[in-house]
Amino acid sequence: MSSALNKMTVEDFDVKGKKVLVRCDFNVKMENGVITSDKRIVASLPTIKYLIDNGAKVILCSHLGRPKGEVNPEFSMKPVAARLSELLGQEVKMADDVVGESAQSLAADLKEGEVLLLENVRFEPGETKNDPDLSKKFASLAELYVNDAFGSAHRAHSSTTGVADYLPAACGYLIQKEIQFIGGALENPKRPLVAILGGAKVSDKIGVITNLIDKCDTLIVGGGMAYTFMKSLGHQIGNSLLEADKVDLAKEMMEKAEAKGVKFLIPVDNKVGREYDPNTEAMIVNSDEIPDGWMGLDIGPETQKIFADAVKDAGTVIWNGPMGVSEWANFASGTVAVATAIADSNAISIIGGGDSAAAIQKLGFADKMSHISTGGGASLEYLEGKELPGIAALNEKK
Ligand code: AMP
């Protein structure tokens, strides 16, 4: 696998006067045609502004929801064009189609610094099939291609991957930052490298654990998935989450870590509840003393200290997944403790998408983190060591 760290970026192109097709992630949350969070549009602004400021003719595209290859006004990009135009303080022209007559003629008429948004790329049935005909049509709109949609970089679609076969291709600032931090941590981390994995399922994170065992100095497992590991040590886990078919694998992973000299930490104590309920009766018990009829819903105070200690001296921390049912105040303190320890450390800190990112935002720690990934599924696949097609397709720096 070639290194993603050497991919061309938007700054490696001479964009003046050129038509540049940019794949953005404008898959915003909407309710009844109204955008309820414009975070993803805001996140795309640095690349778009760079192109405007440097005299490019900017052609943007994205998917929105799952229209499944059919034109469906419910998934039109029009509300995105309106919001983007407010944010940029200039008109954003809106094509009536993706690569049809409207897109072709508006793209051809663009002047330097102007911005055009194409319709939802998933209105085209070829998009998710990475159809070469569609990829060529995308390419025919522009002279250069920039991918800035990290959230879709794990998908080999026409607008994320195929189009790069026909145009010079570079990454935008969002993908550049993902490569710099996640790629940097995997390829050449500041040590010690500490990975903290939580969340509900071992099966979701097996690939990540397997890849990181070969790279980390310390691997920490908390959250619901930790109970499968405890079970593999012969502990009674009561009614805690268990993936019975993963117990042997959990044991193998801990043995592998030991053989490699990687510290593998799992909870030594837990906050257990009677029922899966936010207000259930709760108590703290050691990991080998979870009584029948109780379930582990958060890591305990001793574990919080051990995990925080491991983070304190880290050079790099990668965190993905909550330490307990962090949606419930009574079982959020393990996740808060880990978030606080990361915020207080001098480590390079990389937060995977989803619940851990939400916890960091809620606590107001976002600006204390080096990097919060903009793609949940994509960041997991990246951490699994997989090559992301949307990044692999980009040109290398000369
Ligand atoms: P994931 O999407 O795999 O990162 O998992 C996140 C989910 O795991 C959250 O909804 C948490 O409520 C859940 N979770 C974390 N710890 C536990 C636990 N000990 N028992 C049940 N669910 C948990």
The 3D shape can be described as: elongated
Biggest pleated sheet: 6 strands, parallel
The chain-level structural class is alpha/beta
CATH architecture of the largest domain: 3-Layer(aba) Sandwich
Number of strands: 17
CA-atom Rg in angstroms: 23 Å
Strand share of the residues?
15-25%
Gap between N and C termini: 18 Å
Cofactors, ions and other ligands in the entry? adenosine monophosphate
- The CATH superfamily of the largest domain is Phosphoglycerate kinase, N-terminal domain
CATH class categorisation of the largest domain: Alpha Beta
Multimeric state of these chains?
Answer: single chain
Protein topology:
Blueprint: E1 19-23, E2 29-31, E3 34-37, H1 39-53, E4 57-61, H2 78-88, E5 92-94, H3 101-109, E6 115-117, H4 132-140, E7 144-147, E8 169-171, H5 173-187, E9 193-197, H6 202-213, E10 218-221, H7 226-232, H8 247-260, E11 263-265, E12 269-273, E13 282-286, E14 295-299, H9 301-312, E15 316-320, H10 333-344, E16 348-351, H11 355-362, E17 371-372, H12 376-383, H13 389-392
Parallel strand pairs: 1-4, 1-7, 4-6, 5-6, 7-8, 9-10, 9-15, 10-11, 15-16, 16-17
Antiparallel strand pairs: 2-3, 12-13, 12-14
Helix pairs in contact: 1-2, 6-8, 7-8, 9-10
Tell me about this structure.
This protein is of the alpha/beta class. The chain folds into 2 domains: 6-174, Rossmann fold (3-Layer(aba) Sandwich); 181-383, Rossmann fold (3-Layer(aba) Sandwich), CATH 3.40.50. It is 34% helix and 17% strand. It has helices at residues 39-53, 78-88, 101-109, 132-140, 173-187, 202-213, 226-232, 247-260, 301-312, 333-344, 355-362, 376-383, 389-392; strands at residues 19-23, 29-31, 34-37, 57-61, 92-94, 115-117, 144-147, 169-171, 193-197, 218-221, 263-265, 269-273, 282-286, 295-299, 316-320, 348-351, 371-372. The chain has a 6-stranded parallel beta sheet with strand order 5-6-4-1-7-8, with helices on both faces. Strands 11-10-9-15-16-17 form a 6-stranded parallel beta sheet, sandwiched between helices. Strand 5, helix 3 and strand 6 (115-117) form a beta-alpha-beta unit. It binds adenosine monophosphate (AMP). Adenosine monophosphate is lined by residues 199-201, 204, 223-224, 241, 296-297, 321-322, 324-325, 327, 354-355.
